[in-house]
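Quick one from the shared queue. A colleague (R.T.) flagged Tctex1 domain-containing protein 2-like as missing a structural entry in our internal table.

Convert sequence to structure tokens.
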Amino acid sequence: MADDENVVEEEAETPAATESESAITPTELDKPLAPPKYEVRPSLGEKFQSQNVREIIVTTMQEQLMGRKYRSDQAPRWTEEIANRVRQRVQDLDMKRYKILVQCIMIEMKGAGVKCAQRCMWDPETDDYVGDLFRNETIYCYTVAYGIYMY
């Protein structure tokens, strides 16, 4: 009985050894690798479309805010709607591999000054941003859209 067990173990090891030897042939090792299929930079026509995005921002703010008076209870909803609409319309431009971020700030006009600043770390050759301002008697609204190229 001990002899039968040894025979079974030897037979089980033999097919695995032949499969690994036949899996890689010398001709497959000599083939050059295909060039990578990823793009590090967008082509000229696929860069962030600043002018189109600016038009989207301006029209969206005008559609949402024209003829309105500032209301503190409605301002958060208005800014959220503006940001979501701008982001959706910019994404419809189909700029491939761009992550779109939109920020909208709205305050009441009461004669006080406002200073806004932004700082980002990015690649100036591919990434960009566009912002625009809407003002009327009671509303001051600044919307900015960032386009960050995803490597």
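The chain has a mean pLDDT of 85.
The chain has four helices and three strands.
Added to the table.
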